[in-house]
Automatic annotation (TrEMBL):
Specifically methylates the N4 position of cytidine in position 1402 (C1402) of 16S rRNA. It comes from Candidatus Kinetoplastidibacterium blastocrithidiae TCC012E. HAMAP family: 16SrRNA_methyltr_H. It is an enzyme of class 2 (transferase). PANTHER family: 12S RRNA N4-METHYLCYTIDINE METHYLTRANSFERASE, S-ADENOSYL-METHYLTRANSFERASE MRAW. The keyword Kinase does not apply. This is Ribosomal RNA small subunit methyltransferase H. It is found in: Cytoplasm. It comes from the Bacteria. Keywords: Cytoplasm, Methyltransferase, rRNA processing, S-adenosyl-L-methionine, Transferase. It holds the Pfam family Methyltransf_5.
Length: 332
């Protein structure tokens, strides 16, 4: 396991958001319960959460990355409250059910890629380091970016780079990749960077020309957006009444999914098409948005990676999940 460091983003804000419960006599903090960290990384958020919880509490931590799991396992040896699960958060519900857990007090998500993943050249996530073009978070399965680029056609490559990177030169980059691979497959980060630089000449201020392409390929190869959309309803199902979901996103595609999902569980998207409704037919929201928080200037100065972060907080209401689903489709 690499010992690269990860600086947790919006740390105090996310732990407070997970633990505060508003009661009639003001704010109270939970100091006991069952919590889940869906994206352990190097445990910045988990460790701070554990510091605020008593010895009867439990913390289930997930990560797809074997290095993150090694780090989490070391923590679990020192702290019996920690339970480590090497899997995607998309499998959270079944993994917890198999451990006899069907309700939790809070779920923490700190989405995307960690600093150790970016800094370790062997992982191939960064255009700054020479390494194999891998980019899989879970190195025990799946297809590397290099392998995918060997077979995908121009249109598939263009679509990924455009949709997930919002790259206006997506067509040129896709054509260049396909033309270069006829001579030699693109196997390293440096080869991909050279390929992008040969067709992207205009640079956005402060951004490397390959930033968007690398982001797009990473999101695609790890199925990041699909997994987030798929998993979201199970997070809501798992939360106890007044349990909290706290999610940090780093780009607008992720944040849009979190925002839309929270809104759909507050008021389903087909609500207006069903009007008028009688009082008894009115849906009882099963989730309540508690807003969003951005990092302050001080945090951005200390940790540049935090500049694009947004934290969204939502609270489960006491309304039953099944009633809500009977008449509405929050997945749409
Ligand atoms: C931003 S880092 C989390 C950092 C962590 N909060 C900390 O303070 O150290 C995101 C982590 O989530 C993991 N990850 C991303 N998508 C995942 C998924 N669908 N399921 C489980 N882990 C995931 C990545 O492998 C990475 O380790």
């Amino acid at each position: 396991m690499s010992d690269f460091k990860h600086n947790p983003v919006l740390l105090r804000e996310s732990i407070e958001a997970l633990l505060i419960r508003n009661s009639c006599d003001g704010k109270q903090y939970l100091n006991s319960g069952i919590f889940v960290d869906g994206t352990y990384g190097r445990g910045g958020h988990s460790i701070e959460l554990l510091n605020n919880l008593d010895e009867r509490s439990k913390l289930f931590v997930f990560d797809k990355d074997p290095d993150a799991i090694t780090a989490a396992s070391l923590l679990s040896l020192r702290d019996p409250r920690v339970h480590v699960i090497h899997n995607s958060f998309v499998r959270m519900e079944e993994e917890l059910l198999s451990r006899n857990i069907n309700k939790v007090d809070g779920i923490m998500l700190d989405l995307g890629v960690s600093s150790p993943q970016l800094d370790d050249s062997a992982r191939g996530f960064s255009f700054l380091h020479e390494g194999p073009l891998d980019m899989r978070m879970d190195t025990t399965k799946g297809v590397t970016v290099a392998k995918w680029l060997e077979k995908a056609d121009i249109e598939e490559i263009r679509k990924v780079i455009f949709d997930y990177g919002d790259e206006r030169f997506a067509t040129k980059i896709a054509r260049e990749i396909v033309s270069r691979r006829k001579i030699r497959p693109i196997r390293t980060t440096t080869e991909l960077v050279k390929c992008v630089l040969s067709v992207v000449h205009k640079t956005e201020t402060g951004k490397h020309p390959a930033t968007r392409t690398f982001q797009a390929l990473r999101i695609h190869i790890n199925n990041e957006l699909e997994e987030l959309s798929l998993a979201f309803p199970s997070f809501i199902k798992l939360l106890k009444p007044y349990g909290r979901l706290v999610a940090i996103s780093f780009h607008s595609l992720e944040d849009r999914i979190v925002k839309r999902m929270i809104r759909n569980f507050e008021l389903p998207s087909d609500f207006y098409s069903k009007l008028p409704l009688t009082e008894s037919e009115l849906p009882k929201p099963i989730l309540r948005s508690l807003g969003r928080i951005f990092p302050g200037d001080h945090e951005i100065l200390e940790n540049k990676r935090s500049r694009s972060a947004v934290l969204r907080i939502a609270e489960r209401t006491a309304a039953p999940f099944s009633d809500f689903l009977k008449s509405y489709n929050p997945y749409s």
